[in-house]
């Protein structure tokens, strides 16, 4: 975290207002050096990261205290074997090595598509599991797929309420100038397994594996929910910015 690395910065922060003060110091606080090419916002928000992502937004909405611990204090992030497994599957898909495990999974022309944009003054970073850049006979351009692994089945109603998809659609609208027509969410079914142990007194560890079953859900977008997400992004960025400035003053 930039501010923790420079203890003298706390006093300087209190003397400057990002977005109003034109000094280089304020600009430097807003944009951390490890992301020098990140699109700059209007300076209205002071965030602990140089961007707002879906994971940050959902973390703040579900538990502001956990957000503070992870992003203000640099605490460890939530991690389970299921999350790790999902990341490993995403890597296989990105490297086009998933065919033996998940032969029925549909993948577009650009896996792990990165989006960097600014939504109403808020810097955004997103990664789409699979993005279609080039229009084909069957698939229009500017649509995407989201992959979800897990034992619990997804449903049409759950997909319709899943705001991560709207967040990504909003990011695409601001980065390409066009709202995506739709997306598809693919549920990749998994099951728990037990690793074999030669010593019977050792408790077997649980593992995770895919079953090969894939269920796809089609989800269309409209401008009203994109507008709602834009407002939510600005609202959450403002709340985080206010809380972060209060945290800095207490250092």
Descriptive notes:
The protein has 251 residues and is an alpha+beta fold. It has two domains: 2-77 and 238-249, no CATH class; 81-230, Lambda Exonuclease, Chain A (Alpha-Beta Complex). It has nine helices and five strands, in the order H-H-H-H-H-H-E-E-E-H-H-E-E-H. The chain has helices at 2-5, 9-13, 24-30, 54-62, 64-72, 81-94, 156-161, 163-176, 223-249; strands at residues 110-119, 122-132, 143-150, 182-194, 206-220. Helix 4 (54-62) crosses helix 5 (64-72) and helix 8 (163-176) crosses helix 9 (223-249).
Tags for this model:
single chain; 251 residues; alpha+beta; 2 domains; 5-stranded mixed beta sheet; 9 helices
Please render the helix and strand layout as text.
Blueprint: H1 2-5, H2 9-13, H3 24-30, H4 54-62, H5 64-72, H6 81-94, E1 110-119, E2 122-132, E3 143-150, H7 156-161, H8 163-176, E4 182-194, E5 206-220, H9 223-249
Parallel strand pairs: 3-4
Antiparallel strand pairs: 1-2, 2-3, 4-5
Helix pairs in contact: 4-5, 8-9
**Mean pLDDT reading:** 81
Low-confidence stretches: 1-36, 197-204
- Under CATH, the topology of the largest domain can be stated as Lambda Exonuclease, Chain A
* Rg over alpha carbons: 21 Å
Q: State the helicity in percent bands.
A: 25-40%
Which class best fits the helix and strand makeup?
alpha+beta
Report the top-level CATH class of the largest domain: Alpha Beta
Total strand segments: 5
H/E element string? HHHHHHEEEHHEEH
């Amino acid at each position: 975290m930039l501010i923790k690395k420079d203890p003298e910065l706390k006093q300087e922060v209190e003397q400057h207002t990002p977005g109003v003060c034109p000094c280089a110091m304020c600009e430097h606080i807003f944009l951390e050096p490890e992301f020098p090419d990140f699109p700059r916002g209007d300076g209205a928000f002071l965030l602990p990261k140089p961007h707002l992502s879906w994971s940050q937004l959902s973390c703040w909405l579900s538990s502001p205290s956990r957000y503070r611990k992870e992003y203000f204090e640099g605490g460890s992030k939530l991690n389970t074997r299921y999350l790790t497994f999902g990341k490993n599957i995403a890597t296989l898909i990105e490297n086009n090595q998933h065919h033996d495990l998940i032969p029925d999974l549909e993948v577009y022309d650009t896996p792990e598509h990165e989006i960097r944009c600014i939504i109403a003054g808020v810097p955004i970073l997103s990664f789409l599991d699979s993005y279609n850049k080039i229009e084909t006979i069957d698939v229009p351009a500017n649509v995407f797929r989201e992959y979800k692994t897990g034992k619990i089945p997804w449903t049409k109603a759950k997909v319709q309420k899943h705001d991560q998809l709207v967040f990504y659609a909003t990011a695409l609208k601001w980065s390409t100038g066009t709202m995506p027509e739709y997306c598809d969410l693919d549920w990749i079914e998994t099951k728990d397994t037990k690793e074999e142990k030669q010593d019977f007194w050792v408790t077997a560890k649980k593992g995770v594996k895919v079953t090969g079953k894939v269920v796809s859900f089609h989800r269309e977008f409209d401008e009203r929910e994109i507008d709602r997400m834009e407002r939510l992004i600005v609202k959450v960025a403002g709340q985080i910015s206010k809380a972060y400035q209060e945290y800095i003053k207490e250092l």
